[in-house]
Design brief:
With 254 residues, this protein is of the alpha/beta class. It is 42% helix and 21% strand. It is built from twelve helices and eleven strands.
Length: 254
């Protein structure tokens, strides 16, 4: 029996639907839990889960205990985190809400906006907090990046775009890791199963929708579709040469 911890966000539930709901055959007995991304990061720092979603930026801290899987990543172009503030605000940004100190969002904020004061909070509460003036600005991830314009918010910077302009590489956001004490044959089997689950999801996209909606923060089909299209792609099946180079570039500097 292996513990599997993932986020409830549409990209993760879309990717793992075929495994968790046994739409494809496998012999894994998985104890599945759904957690916020920073909870997932803190979990692997404590060695809680056998298999877990993580922010790529936390991997250097856990590499001694976990191995990255070639499949399951959220990595691509045009998918970066968005720094937003209230519409019409001007002046220097001092405080920024982020989805956690161990997230890739936080790492990129520090890279491109050094010196700001970071205020960690649950990702789904950031847009409202910025709108209410709790912080000067906030970094949006997941579904929040698609709906912020419905609020009294405006874009300050696309952190992913800044990364792409600097490196000419896709942005690594999240990965799936497995404990190093899991047998190599088991790891390879799960890695292949995960790639097959992504392929199944692409080929049967409507099948997973009830499962995805069960866990999503934003339930509109168009938001869910945009979310999945942005974060699930060929790199999710396999990082490949370019994806691996992007990962090396990011985690080598974290």
């Amino acid at each position: 029996k292996l513990s599997l911890h993932i986020s409830p966000c549409p990209n993760d539930t879309f990717v793992f639907d075929a495994i968790i709901n046994r739409r494809i055959d496998h012999n894994f007995d998985l104890d599945v839990e759904y957690k916020d991304i920073e909870e997932l990061n803190l979990g692997v720092l404590s060695g809680v889960a056998d298999i877990s979603k993580i922010s790529y930026s936390v991997y250097p801290k856990i590499a001694h205990q976990y191995r990255l899987l070639d499949s399951g990543s959220a990595l691509g172009r045009g998918n970066g985190q968005l720094l937003v503030r209230r519409k019409g605000e001007c002046g220097k940004i001092h405080t920024v809400a982020t989805p956690g100190l161990n997230t890739t969002a936080n790492a990129l904020l520090m890279r491109y906006f050094p010196g700001v004061e970071v205020v960690p909070m649950l990702f789904s509460t950031i847009a409202e907090a910025v709108e209410r003036g709790v912080t000067d600005a906030g970094v949006l991830i997941h579904e929040g990046r698609f709906v912020y314009e419905r609020r009294n918010l405006e874009l300050v910077a696309d952190l992913g775009k800044l990364w792409e302009e600097e490196t000419a590489l896709p942005l690594p956001l999240g990965a799936i890791v497995i404990k190093r004490d899991v047998d190599d044959a088991v790891r390879e089997q799960f890695e292949q199963l995960l790639a097959d689950s992504v392929r199944y999801a692409f080929a049967n996209s409507d099948v997973s929708r009830p499962f995805v909606k069960e866990h999503a923060q934003e339930l509109e089909d168009d938001v869910i579709d945009k979310h999945i299209a942005l974060f699930v792609n060929q790199y999710t099946i396999s990082l490949g040469k370019e994806g691996s180079e992007a990962v090396r570039r990011l985690i080598g500097e974290c």
